[in-house]
Amino acid sequence: MLSIRKYLYLASAQLNNPQRYILWQMISIVIIKIINITYLLICQKGLDDMIEKCMMADCQTIPLIIQISYLGCNRRNLQKLIASFKFWNFIRNLFRKRSTVEPINPATDKI
Q1: With CB atoms counted within 10 Å of each terminal CB, which end of the chain scores lower, N or C?
Q2: Burial level of 89, CB count in 10 A (0-12/13-18/19+)?
Q3: Which regions span the lipid bilayer (predicted)?
């Protein structure tokens, strides 16, 4: 945090607000860790199982933390995300079957 404050006079630091990015990252990490720790305490399994679940949760939540902090630091992206999010549209898109998987025929199709 000290090195960020040292470079606040730069135009790129004033434009991009790196302190806001770090704040959103810290908030995201704290919330996700509280949820993970609460889940682990409720399950009360062995130490090895807890360590494995923590590692899996970290691998799954790191992209989420990066995305949340990016969207949170850019006000325009955050407002656009909130305005476009409709709960029923999300549920409808989640269960919609519109993509298909077909094998590639190497004789006719080229990659």
Answers
A1: C
A2: exposed
A3: 21-42
Of 23, 53, 59, nearest to 36 by C-alpha is 53
Degrees, nearest 5: CA angle 66-5-31 = 35
Q: How far is CA 25 from CA 21, 32, 100, in A?
A: 6, 11, 36
DSSP designation for 38: H
Q: What does the pLDDT profile of the chain (111 residues) look like in tens digits?
A: 456 666 666 666 566 666 777 777 788 888 888 988 888 888 877 888 888 888 888 888 888 878 777 776 666 766 776 777 777 777 777 777 666 667 777 666 555
Rounded Cα gap, residues 71 and 28, in angstroms: 12
- CA distance linking residue 36 with residue 39, whole number of Å: 5
Q: Positive or negative CA dihedral for 39, 41, 46, 50?
A: positive
